[in-house]
Amino acid sequence: MLEIFGFIFMTLGVLAFLVSALGLLRMPDVYTRMHVGTKATTIGVVLVALGACFLEPSWSFKLLLLALFVLLTNPLSSSVIARATHKNGLTLERDELKDAS
Question: What is the rounded end-to-end Cα distance, in angstroms, of the chain?
Fold first, then answer.
């Protein structure tokens, strides 16, 4: 029974990665691509790690630490990339960060 849950979560994680890849190809600018790349891959990693926890319970602690690390660092790196992109002069039509820098 645990194997079924494991494969379901891993399949959902792979689907999140697929959505992320399609979003990176379809989105029009750096900021929306970065949003898709961050959100979908974070969810994908967490779901794959959760599925692997069901398949191999002895690895659960390490996998949950890995998922926590990704949950904490992926949004932070996305924010740093967005700030660097904005400081290099790439703007949108509606620039909400213009006055903040």
Answer: 53
